[in-house]
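Workshop exercise sheet. Pairs work together: one partner reads the sequence aloud, the other fills in the structure field after running the prediction. Swap roles for the next sheet.
Pair: D.N. / O.F.
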Amino acid sequence: MEIKKIQKTIDAWIKSNTKGYWQPNNMMLRLMEEVGELAREINHQFGEKIPKPTEKNQKIGNEIADVFFTIICISNALNIDLEKYFLSTIKKYNKRDKHRH
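Structure field:
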């Protein structure tokens, strides 16, 4: 799925299931919350932190998807064409880091 299509899909969901996008600062806080959940799951699976019984069977992919969803919401609320910026970033990395790694 193209990023533009993902953005449209999430926008349609937001419009049909919520009162609209949160304020950007609130979405940023939500993003930090989701990143924290991702960090916790990675720590459970690869670190030394033992999960609580209620935290078992979480999937890293689900946590990454929650982060991605929130990033798309921020982009949509700010009318950012994320696909355009992503392609620009890939060009930057290809030029800057072509022989680096």
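Discussion prompt: Residues 24-46 form the longest helix (23 residues). What would you look at next?
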